[in-house]
Amino acid sequence: MIHQTGIWASLQSHHQATKSWHMRDLFAQNPHRFDQMHEVLAEDFLVDYSKNRITEETLDLLLHLAEQAQLREHINAMFRGDKINLSENRPALHIASRLPKTAQLSVEGEDVVPQVHQSLEKALNFAEQVRSGSLKGFTGKPFTDIVNIGIGGSDLGAKALSLALKPFSGSLNIHFVSNVDPAYLSETLQRLSPETTLFIISSKSFTTAEVFINAQLARQWFLNRQPEKAIAHHFVAVSNNLKQASDFGIKEAFIFSMAEWVGGRFSVTSTIGLLLMLAIGENHFRAFLSGAHEMDRHFHDAPFRHNVPVLLALIDIWYLNFYHAYTRCIVPYHHGLHLFPAHLQQLMMESNGKSVSLSGQMLDIPTSPVIFGTEGTDAQHSYFQLLHQGSHLIPADFIVVVRDEYRQPESQKVLFSNALAQTQVLMSGHEDSSNEKFMQGNRPSNTIAIPRLTPFHCGMLLALYEHRTFVQSVIWGINAFDQWGVQYGKIAAQKIQSQLDTQEEVNHDASTNALIQFFRKHRND
Predict the structure, then answer these.
(1) Predicted TM-score of the model (pTM)
(2) Are the C-beta atoms of residues 276 and 310 closer than 8 Å to each other?
């Protein structure tokens, strides 16, 4: 395993030798530090990683670690369509969902690109018909509201990005329902008219418990107000379960399939992005795909020393495994991105929250930091005190945007200056004769800066974190594309659910048994 290699031992020795160094001194000693530790990609997508506790020697050692883990071979295997998701015996080909039409990618002897574009064009054509009003509801009225019923990968990505790209949206009102708590769906539906509402059931299997329960409740709400034959005009599905979706009442033309090799949390650039297509339209969605593909090309082609997903992933490993910094904060200084950290929580922690290697061995090193974050400047008045003066190290990502879409340059200037000030003070610290005001600094951060939050830039940002997550999994020797912890939790929930309506004796632990009895006692109060 990687932590038993000589290069891992070299990194441990390097950490011991450098852990007391201060970034303030590193900047003072090298006036070209920023020049050497930032990258500018397409459309001025800038990534500054100079405010980290690293030197060129650190990077050399980390890049040697990547070579030891055969990272280049793993990247090539993913882009070839090899079955790198070993536990499910399938490729992990989210990169195929944003390939241009002229590309070719053969998986088991079949070029998957035509299939990708056939599915994409079917979904985009549908979205454009709804947006234009040419596709109407059962009573002939155009749709005004779209409700996406999904959870996890069928919800978070599309939700986060539809909010990020709201300035590029049309007149449709977009709603999301994920939590199985009935209050969530009820609060959404009470504001809507069934005649002008379109429901999207987003579930690859069409059997995910939370999605199926909410879909049935939405269906019943609709049937209480419209005839059953209207279902086919107001419900669509993103699913591979054609029979289940048809039995629900959805016509085949309104069922949008997705390839099995696209994992849920990596799926927003596939037909799971139907909600986003409806929100921003075909041209903007294609620009979003182009941005993701641009980052894919950079990740595949760029040498590791200038490869942004690789560098950021290695820096993550440096802090988690050598500094024992078990959390990472992600702070977007743009209101549109306020749900982006929630998507990244799922992407990064569900992918890499593993303790068993690909070879089935238990790992004795941590994998995946705990991801948290909210938008700036709210975060500054919440938990930034901990980042500045807390007793443990919390590396941070700052995502900053130069221009907004609301033509308020003064507010944007205040926002941008706050973000830069935070990274500066985190790095340099603040000396004061009063102990309580002293901040030692030396707190690391990355800054991702873009001129505008366009669909293209959003695509690049999404793909950057996807590939960063994959690189970490390769170094740690784990499978980023399964989630057995989630699956087992679902199975356990089904067993307990079947016992809540009975008086049969339960045989769990004492706590679970008592709580089941508590539910039975108070259910009908």
Answers:
(1) 0.94
(2) no
